[in-house]
Amino acid sequence: MPRSLSTPLTRKFGIDFPIVQGPMNGGSTPEMVAAVSNAGGIGALAAANFDVQTMRTKVNAIRSLTTKPFCVNLFVLETPAPTPGEIRDALDRLQPIRAELGLPPAAAPERYCEEFREQLDALIALKAPVASFTFGLLDAASIERLHAAGSLVIGTATNVAEALAWQANGADAICAQGAEAGGHRGTFIGHPDASMIGTLALVPQIVDAVALPVIAAGGIMDGRGIAAALTLGAQAAQLGTAFLMTAESPIHAAWQEKIRLSTDTSTRTTRTFTGRPARGILNDFMLRMGRYEQELPAYPVQHALTTEIRKAAGQANRPEFMSLWAGQAAGMSRRRAEAIPAAELVRVLVAETQAALA
Amino acid sequence: MPRSLSTPLTRKFGIDFPIVQGPMNGGSTPEMVAAVSNAGGIGALAAANFDVQTMRTKVNAIRSLTTKPFCVNLFVLETPAPTPGEIRDALDRLQPIRAELGLPPAAAPERYCEEFREQLDALIALKAPVASFTFGLLDAASIERLHAAGSLVIGTATNVAEALAWQANGADAICAQGAEAGGHRGTFIGHPDASMIGTLALVPQIVDAVALPVIAAGGIMDGRGIAAALTLGAQAAQLGTAFLMTAESPIHAAWQEKIRLSTDTSTRTTRTFTGRPARGILNDFMLRMGRYEQELPAYPVQHALTTEIRKAAGQANRPEFMSLWAGQAAGMSRRRAEAIPAAELVRVLVAETQAALA
């Protein structure tokens, strides 16, 4: 008989399998989220870039597609106040790439991100079954409001201190994000370089430090990785890159192609796209902007300033200027059928996990 | 019944448990090696810094203590030929720290390392049951000579390309060294930064790429880590830092104390001590010399030039100038009894691994 994949976390969250679809900005859709949740895992809508109305529309779309628990993810952000000089310098550095894409010189945008507090209020009102957060620490009062709305709260930690901070503020689970993970690093205590901790080393240290269930993230692409996460003491595993390659994935075909052709050494972390370290497939944009790595404005300013470039690069099918977020195990996606439906991926992952633990 | 820990590798190597004591320069002794091998794992003597006569003496000492298989590890090195100017600059950079330790200005040493080819010939003559290598790739003819002497060969790889190169040259197993690992990075194909691949992401990619058994190394401190390595497809796990804390460990008490007090964020990789990236606990030497990180002479030159400093720092009990090699899971050593005998550590690890897989 296959080993049960039930854990205290799966029971607490009311899901069948310890599989979490990582929230990925621009990489998740209501269809993906619902497919994962309907298959017995838990899907996650990346809502950080959505205004309140869009968030409501997307959550309602998820609810029209599933009655199972799902998650909505936000970035904990302060409203930025960059100086005009900082913006001018940052735009000047980007201008050669804008010119190559046929974009005119840019002016400072009117705003750099959605207002986090408005998003949070909307999320509380939406009573999502699960709310997850990264980039910062949510205050205890807000976590209480989420709990009062019936939402469970997952806090992202890249080190033990962050996990303890989330526990102290009342989170229900910790997502332990190892250095292998694709996309943005969640670090908010200490320098990001100090928290480039491999998943295999990070997960047991967080498990030992907190009384909360831990979700392991980073470098997990198949059932072997999920089984490893469980043996390390995690109660679920979060996969991002794997779901970027599913039939429900909305990402650019060139991004998917780069993931499929990637190897173990293809990714790097970079601040060049958004001002916050994030892991993606090394490309010309990262190489050319890398000389400014430490000088660029912090997230969300650099993110806002590069948005038009990344959009234009997509329209021109020029992946050398796109943000190709992917984790260090991205190349393992070649082992799967192309455009595997997300629900089928969950089923395959469950079978692989049971085989790895047998 | 506990799950069997027997793997094709344990059977090929004639050992009871899939546990390898990592070779650690200055951190292994014949007593440690024999204790691990007698307990059913496989001990490894770090011989890279030994002249031929010392290597013979140490291997004979191991043989007087065990009849079980053991391993001897060498660095694959070319004889360096630094310019006088390079040495002068490197010594100038170190002089302030030498002065703080009461050391006089240094002259260029007569030699920078043992001659690798002499070491290799001696190792072949010693007919060690297992020979392991890092820092480079051994040629196929030398691997054949080792095989003819009855030695099995383990090649260290930090990426898939290196694992394939070792396989092509005839190695019997691959040690997959993840980014979490303490001490030196073994990277010899590509830039070291590109091969900072977390163990959880690296192991399955190497397992999928080669037909050889894989030993997982990096971030493994207890049975949960060993179990995770096995579920990822590795056939054994290598632990270094854990054995640095055993009763048989010869390392400085201050080094052990720093490991015991370390946390998940305590380590960094640095070229400052030896000219090759290595992971250790962040200290003043690394911080002060860090500005020269990219300019320092390569291993073994910088290693030779800092030897006297590290020795004097030990004698003066000043860990701020010692190389405090440790992996990213070093802080987990606090969970163990201090100075646990290496044989007892193997027994505990076996029990923990079985529990994690149960």
Task: Provide a quick synopsis of the model.
Two copies of one chain form a homodimer. With about 350 residues, chain A is an alpha/beta fold.
> Hey, which two chains have the biggest interface?
A-B, 46 and 46 residues
Mean pLDDT across residues of chain A? 97
Which CATH-level-2 architecture of the largest domain in chain A? Alpha-Beta Barrel
Order of helices and strands of chain A: HEHEHEHHEHEHEEHEHEHHEEHHH
What's the gyration radius of chain A in Å? 19 Å
**CATH fold node name of the largest domain in chain A:** TIM Barrel
Oligomer: homodimer
Helix content of chain A: 40-55%
What percentage of the residues of chain A does DSSP assign to strands (E)?
5-15%
Can you count the helices of chain A? 14
Instruction: Provide the spatial order of strands within the biggest beta sheet of chain A.
Output: 1-9-8-6-5-4-3-2
Terminus-to-terminus distance of chain A: 9 Å
Stretches with pLDDT under 50, minimum 5 residues of chain A = none
Q: Would you tell me the structural class of the helices and strands of chain A? A: alpha/beta
CATH class of the largest domain in chain A: Alpha Beta
Describe the protein's architecture and organization:
- 2 copies of one chain form a homodimer.
- By secondary structure, chain A is an alpha/beta fold.
- Chain A folds into 2 domains: 8-77 and 113-255 and 333-357, TIM Barrel (Alpha-Beta Barrel); 81-112 and 267-325, no CATH class.
- In chain A, 41% of the residues lie in helices and 13% in strands.
- The first copy, chain A, has 14 helices and 11 strands.
- The first copy, chain A, has an 8-stranded parallel beta sheet with strand order 1-9-8-6-5-4-3-2. In chain A, strands 7-11-10 form a 3-stranded antiparallel beta sheet, with no helix packed on it.
- In chain A, α9 (223-231) links the parallel β8 (214-217) and β9.
- The first copy, chain A, is globular.
- The mean pLDDT of chain A is 97.
- Chains A and B meet through α8 and α9 of A and α8 and α9 of B.
